[in-house]
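User: I'm putting together a teaching handout on how multi-component assemblies are represented. Below are the sequence lines for each component of a complex, exactly as they appear in our records. Could you produce the 3D structure of the whole assembly as C-alpha cells, so the students can see both representations side by side? Please keep the chain order the same as the input.
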Amino acid sequence: MRLYALVAAGGFRRYATYRIATAAGVFTNTVFGFILAYTFIALWDERPGLGGYDQSQALTFVWTGQCLIAAAALFGGGFSDELQSRISTGDIAIDLYRPVDLQLWYLAQDLGRAALQLIGRGAVPLAAGALAFDLALPASPLRWLVFLLSVALGCVVSFALRYLVGLSAFWLLDATGVNMFSTMLSMFFSGMLLPLTVFPGTFGEIAQRLPWSALLQVPADVLLGRHEGVGLLAALGFQAAWALVLLALGRAVQAVATRRVVVQGG
Amino acid sequence: MEEAVIELDELRKTFVVRRRAGRLKRTRHEVHAVESISFTVPRGEMVGYIGPNGAGKSTTIKMLTGILTPSGGRVRVAGLDPSRERTALAQRIGVVFGQRTTLWWDLPLRDSYQLMRRMYRIEEPRFRKNLDRCVDLLDLGALLDVPVRQLSLGQRMRGDIAAALLHDPEVLYLDEPTIGLDVISKAKVREFLHDLNAERGTTVLLTTHDLTDIEQLCKRVMVIDHGRLVYDGDLGGLHAIGESERTLVVDFERELPPVSVDGARTVRTEGPRQWLAFPAGASAAPVVTALAERYPLVDLSVREPDIEDVIARMYAGA
Amino acid sequence: MGERLYLGLRGYGLIVAMWVRATLAYRTSFALMVLGSFVSTFLNFVAIMIMFTHTDVLGGFTVAEVALLYGTSATSLGLADLLLGSLDRLGARVRDGTMDALLVRPVPVFAQVTADRFALRRLGRISQGVLVLIWALTQVDVDWTWWKLVLLPVTVLSGLGIYGAIYTCGAAFQFWANDASEVQNAFTYGGDTLLQYPPTIFAKDLVWGATFIIPLAFVNWLPIGRILGREDRLGLPGWVDFASPAVALIACTIAGFAWRAGLRGYRSTGS
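Assistant: Of course. Below is the structure of the complete assembly, with chains in the same order as your input.
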C-alpha cells in the first residue's frame, strides 16, 4: 500500500513540473468556459428549468465541466498513451515481471496526476466562473467533501476506461483510431457538451446510465445537490459499480493479453 | 595555398540566460559559448573537432550549418554566409547529429531517401549511384523498408550518414557519429568515412569523444575548451603536449610483483592483472614483445587515453 | 521572396505527397480515421441540434441560421487545420531538438513544420462542416443575389486566412513557451465554438474582443450577418461586413512577422 502511495505522489509531482503547460491549459479551459456559459445562458433564457436546472445551476454545470476536463481526462490520453507505447515496443514484458500489480501501479500514478490537475487546472477556471457569473455553489463543506469523493470515483472510472483503451494496443498495431473513438464517447456522454439530462427521451435515459456519466454528470449533480439521502448513496453507488466492473474487465483483458505475450515470448 | 572551404574569423556566440534568484527575481547572465575562434579548413581535409562537454563544439557546428546566428566575427562555408544563406548552403553540406536523427521517424528509410532526392533535386542516375554505394558500404540493404523508429542506434546512424551524402555535399559535419555504437558498427562507419574522404575529397569536420575515431580518420585535430581553440595540429603533437599515455592491460598466468620493461611503467596491479602506462605517441609493439619474452601472458589489451584526460594534462603541463 | 515562396510550396507539396502516400497504404485504417474525425467534430452540431429540440430560436437565430454560422466556421477551421494543424507540434520539436534537422534542409522551415505528419484524416472535419453548410443553405430563408453568392465563398476563404494566422501566431509563441501549444486551442477550436453561435448571445465586451483584438468576427459573424440581414452588435459601419479578405490579409502578414521573429529568436538562442 505504501508503495502505491509513493507511486501516486510520483504522478502528482511529475505533472507539477509542467507549469507552462498547466497555465496554458487553465487559460484554454477558462476561455471555453466563458463561451459555453453564454450559450447556456441563451438556452436557459428560452427554456428556464430545462433539464431540471435553473440558469445558475446550468452555469455551475458548465464550469464544473471545465474544472474536471483535465482531472477526469475527458479528452483521454495521459498514461494510456504511455501504456500503448510500452506495449508496442515490447517494454511491457519488463513491467509484467515486476513484483507490483500493473493495473494498481498505473491507477495510483493516474490518481496522483488527477489530484494535481484538479488543483492546478481545475480550481482556477471554477474560481473564474464563480467571479464572472452567478453560480449555484454549495455553502456546506460536507457537500464539497462528497463532491470530492464523487470526483475521485469518476477519476477511477475514467482510469478504468482508459486502461482498456491502453490494453487495446496488444491487438492493434495502431491504436490511434481507438483513442479517437474513446475520446469521442467520453466527450459526448460525460455531459461536457450538454448536460445529459437535456438529451431527449430514451436516448437521454440511456446516456445517463453509461459509465461516462460517472465522469462529469454525476459529480456535477452531487455538487448541485440534486442527489440527497438515499439518492446520493445511489449516485455514488452507480459510480463505484461502474468502477468495479470496468476495473475487473481490465484485469480480465490484461490476463488474456499477458497469456499472449508469454506464448509469443514478448 | 589550397582553397579553404571552411573559414572562421574571430567567431563568437554569446547566450543570455536567465536564472532563478529567489522566488520571483531572475538574474541575467551572459554565457560565452564560443569566444573568438578562428581557423580554416582546406578542401578535402578531414578534421577532428574535440573538447569536453559544453566546450562549444555543438555551438560552433550550429553556426557553421546556419542553425545559429553568430554574435560576432565572420564565418564562410563554401563561400556562403551560413546564417544568411542557409537554404542555399543546405544544398552543399551534409549534417549528421549523432544523438538525433534527421530522418522521418515514422517512415521507412526508402521513403525518406526518395523525399531527400526530390527536396535536394538530385538527378535520378546520380541518386541511384550514391544510394547504391551507401547501401552497399553501410550495409543498409535489409533496412530500407523498416520505419526509422524501429532501427537500432547503429542502424539508424548508418541510415543518417547515407541520407546526408545522397546530394554529394562538399562538406560533411558529423556530430558524435560513433557515440553509443557497437564495435562492428563503429568500424564500419569509420571505414566508410575514410573511403569517402579519400575517393571523393569530401571535407569532413567531425566531433567525437572517441580518440580512436580521430586516430584512424584525421590527420588534423582541433581542441576547443571553454569556447576557445586551445590546440590545432596533429594527434601526435596533442599527445606530446599533454604527455598523454596509453595503457596496456596485461593478464598474467599468475600474480606477479610489478613487472619492469623498457618504455613502460606499471601503474596498478590487481591479482594477476597489471596496468602499464607508455607514451601515447609510441608503439605498443616493443613493450608487448619485451613482456612476452620474459613473462607468461594470458591476455592483453590497449586502452586509449580519454579526451578529458588529454586536455586536463594539457593544462597541467602548460 | 518569390523564390522562397516557390521553394516553400514545392517542399510543402513534396512532404505532403509523401505523407498522403504513406497514409493511403493502409486504406481501411485511413477510412476509419476520417470517419472518426467526421463523427467527433460533428458531435458539436449534434449538441446544437439537441438544444434546438428544446427551443425554436437561440439569441434570435433559427436553427438554419445557426447552421450557416456553424458550417462556414467549421469549413474554414477544417481547411486551416488540414493545411497547418501540424504547427502544434512545434514546441515539442524545439524541446526534443529535432527542429535543428529542419534548419539544415534546403526548404523553408515553415513549409517543413506544417507539412510534417500531414493528416489527411482531417478531411473528416472539413466534410462535416461542408455538409452542415449545404444543409443550412437549403433551409435558410435568404433572397440570394449575386453579391451574396460571391460573398459566401470569399468568407470561407477569408476564414481560412484568419484561422491560419492564429495557428501561425500560436506556433510562433511556442518558440519561447515550448509547452504552451494548448494556448492556440483557445483561439482555434475555442474560436470555432464561439462562432458556431450567434453573436447576440454573448456579452458585448466578448464580441468587441472577438472583433478588434482577435478578428474572429470576420470569419463569419459580420459577413454572414450581412447575408442574413442582421444588424451587427457593435453598430459598425456597413462596409466592415465586406472587409474579411482585407482583415485576413493583414492577419496573415502579422502572423508572418510573428513567425519570423520566433524563428530568429530560436536561431539566436538555440532553444
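A couple of points students might notice: Residues 2-260 of chain A form one domain. Chain A has one domain: 2-260.
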